[in-house]
Amino acid sequence: MRSVLVTGASAPLGSRLLEELRRREGVERIVGVEPAATSNWIDGVELVAFDSDHRELFEFISIHEIDTVIHCALAPDRSGGRSEPAPARVIETMRLGAAVAHEGSPVRAWVVASSSDVYPISSHAPLLHREDSALDVREGTLAASLIEAEDYVRDIAERNPHLNVSILRLQQLVGGGVRSPIATLLDQRILPAVIGYDAPMQVLAIDDAVGALIHAAEFELAGVYNVASAGVLRYSEARRLMKRRSLPVLPISAGSLGPLAQRVGIPHVPEGLLERLLYGQAVDTSKLAASGFDPEFDQPACLETLRN
Predict the structure, then answer these.
(1) Which of 252, 297, 243 lies closest to 273 in space, CA to CA?
(2) Residue 186 domain-assigned (yes or no)
(3) Does 214 map to a domain?
(4) Which end of the chain is more exposed for a tag (fewer CB within 10 A), N or C?
C-alpha cells in the first residue's frame, strides 16, 4: 500500500482514515476524493474533485499509480456524518468500480465500506449474523440498495482475479464528532426504554472502523467481513452505562416528529431504529478476527466515547 485513494473523504470516517494514513510508514501518496473541492482539508493530503465520468478518474488513478482504493461513500449513515438512514450510493459505486477495474488500472486492492443493514432485523433473525447469513431482500429498502451495490462489487472481483476486493459490513458508528442513528438515540437527555423489550445492541467505534479499513487494505483481504467493536450489550445495559435517565415509551417510532421531540427533550425512538430496539442486531466478527484484526474498543468503551 503505497498510493491510496479514499472516497467520502470529507465525512468523519473518511477524514479520520486520511489522518491515520498520514501516519503509516510506506504510504507515499494520499488522495481524498469528493464531488466538489473544499477548503477545509488535512495537511499532506491531496484533494481531488471528480464528476460522473469514470474515465477521468481512471486516468488519474493510472497517471499517479494508485494501488489501493478505499470506498467510504457507499453507505452514508456509516460515514459518521448522518443521523438518519439514507439510500446506498449505488451509481457512484459502479462508476468507481469501472475506474478501478479499467484495463490497465494499477489498483491491486479495493476496500468497500458497506453496512450491516443488509441483514434482516426481526424476532426470527439470529443473534449474531455471519457473512453467509440470509440478507434482507425486501424491494425498495436500504438493504436492497446495499445488496445491489455489493453484488456489483463482487462481480468486479470475479471478473478481475488480479484485484483483491473486500467488502466490510460496518455496524453503526459512534465516537467523538460522529453522527449516526444510534449516536443520536443515545445522545438524548432522557433515553427511551421501549416497554416489553430489551434488545441486544452492538456498535462500532470510528477508530476501530478506520483500523479495519486499513487492515483490509494492507493485507489485501478479499471477500466479505463483518466489522464491530468487541462484544454485545443489552439496551438496558447501554442505558445504564450512559448514566442517563430513562422513561418507558410505547414500541412506536417518532417518525417525522423526531427532530421536534429532540429539540424539546422528549424521549423518543428515532426513525429507522424501532426494529433495532425491539429485536436488536449484532454481527459475528470472527472472520475478520481470523485475518488478524483486533478491535481496540469493546462496547462499554464505545459508549464512553459518547459520554465525553
Answers:
(1) 252
(2) no
(3) yes
(4) C
Give pLDDT, residue 177.
Answer: 85
Question: Rounded to whole angstroms, how far apart are CA atoms 178 and 110?
Answer: 25
User: Cell numbers 475478520 correspond to what residue?
Assistant: 288
Helices (H) and strands (E) in the chain, counts: 11, 15
Between CA 217 and CA 211 the distance in angstroms is 10
Torsion over CA: 20, 229, 185, 122 (sign): positive
Residue-wise pLDDT for 266-287, tens only, equals 777 877 889 999 999 999 999 9
Q: What is the pTM of this model?
A: 0.93
Q: For residue 37, give the CATH number of its domain.
A: 3.40.50.720
Q: How many CB atoms lie within 10 A of CB 262?
A: 19
Residue among 190, 177, 171 at smallest CA distance from 276:
171
Q: Is residue 221 part of a domain?
A: yes
113, 74 contact by CB (below 8 A): yes
In terms of DSSP H, where are the helices of 64-177? 90-100, 142-159
DSSP 305: H
> Is there a domain that residue 235 lies in?
no
Structural domain that includes position 106? 3-175+202-230+282-296
Q: How many domains would you assign to the chain?
A: 1
54 near 157, Cβ under 8 Å? no
The grid coordinates of residue 270 equal 428515532
Q: Provide the pairing of β-strand 128-129 with 282-283.
A: parallel
